[in-house]
TrEMBL record:
Identification of the protein by name: Wall-associated receptor kinase galacturonan-binding domain-containing protein
Main localization, broad class: membrane
Cellular compartment(s): Membrane
Keyword rRNA-binding among UniProt keywords: no
Keyword terms, alphabetized: Membrane, Signal, Transmembrane, Transmembrane helix
Length: 235
C-alpha cells in the first residue's frame, strides 16, 4: 500500500474519531443542561416549548422575554401589531390565549387584521343590502366608513357560515379571526356586537405554531424551527 493511501486512511480514521468525540460532547452538554421552569410576573412555570431570554436554547423552541410586567407578543405577519398574552396552556399541545392590542376596552372597534390560523373562526363581513337573519349580528356600530366598503356590516359565526359560498351573495368577508374562547361552546345568536367586543377583550386561543412571528427577530439552532420571541408580563 502506498504512503498516500495510508495517509488517506489515517485521515479518515482521525475524522471519524473527531466526529465521535464531538457527538459525545454534544450529548453530554444536552444531558447536563438544566431545563428548569422560569417565571415572569403571573407566569410561574414557563417551560418547554417556551423559554425565557437567557435560558439554554436547547430547552425550548419559543423564546419569551419578560419586560415591564406586560404580556405582549409583537408580530410582523399580521400588520406589525401586538397581542397581549393572557394565558399559556401546555396540555393537549401548547396553546396561547391572545388579545389583539389594537382593541380598546372603552371603545367598540373591529379587529383590523385577519388572523387565518386555527380551526374555529368568526367573520366580519360587509354587505350591499341589509340581511335579516339571526346568524348575522349587526356590527355597524363598531365599524367606520373606511373599514367597510359596503353600507351594512355584520359579525358571523364560522360554524354557521363554513365558507364564502354560504354567505349572502351581496356580502364579502373583510376580516377572519379565531372565535373568542368564551364562544367555543355557545352561539352568537341573541348577542350584540358590544357583547362580542367584550368577549374579544378576553382573548381567543391559538396553537403555538400559529403565534405571529416576532418583530424582534428569530434564532435558529442546529436546524431546529425558529425561536419566536414573545414578550411576557401582565395586561
Amino acid at each position: 500500500m502506498s504512503i498516500r493511501a495510508k495517509l488517506a486512511i489515517l485521515g479518515l480514521l482521525a475524522l471519524a474519531h473527531l466526529s465521535h468525540f464531538l457527538d459525545a460532547v454534544n450529548a453530554a452538554r444536552r444531558v447536563t443542561t438544566p431545563c428548569k421552569p422560569s417565571s415572569c410576573g403571573a407566569f410561574t412555570n414557563i417551560s418547554s416549548p417556551f423559554i425565557l431570554e437567557g435560558d439554554p436554547l436547547e430547552c425550548g423552541d419559543y423564546e419569551l422575554i419578560c419586560e415591564n410586567n406586560r404580556t405582549i407578543l409583537h408580530n410582523v405577519d399580521y400588520g406589525n401589531g401586538s397581542f397581549y398574552v393572557q394565558e399559556i396552556f401546555y396540555n393537549d399541545g401548547p396553546t396561547i390565549r391572545l388579545v389583539d392590542g389594537s382593541l380598546k376596552s372603552d371603545e367598540c372597534s373591529i379587529l383590523p387584521k385577519s388572523f387565518p390560523c386555527g380551526s374555529d373562526y368568526m367573520y366580519f363581513i360587509s354587505c350591499k343590502v341589509a340581511i335579516n337573519s339571526s346568524l348575522y349580528v349587526d356590527a355597524s356600530p363598531c365599524a367606520n366608513a373606511s373599514f367597510s366598503p359596503h353600507p351594512y356590516f355584520y359579525a358571523v359565526d364560522g360554524r354557521e357560515i363554513s365558507n364564502a359560498i354560504d354567505l349572502h351573495e351581496s356580502c364579502i368577508i373583510e376580516v377572519q379571526v379565531p372565535r373568542p374562547f368564551q364562544l367555543q361552546s355557545s352561539s352568537i345568536t341573541g348577542l350584540s356586537i358590544f357583547d362580542i367586543h367584550q368577549m374579544f377583550l378576553m382573548g381567543y386561543d391559538v396553537p403555538d405554531y400559529c403565534a405571529p412571528r416576532s418583530s424582534l427577530g428569530t434564532v435558529t439552532v442546529n436546524g431546529t424551527p425558529p425561536l419566536y420571541k414573545i414578550i411576557l408580563g401582565k395586561m
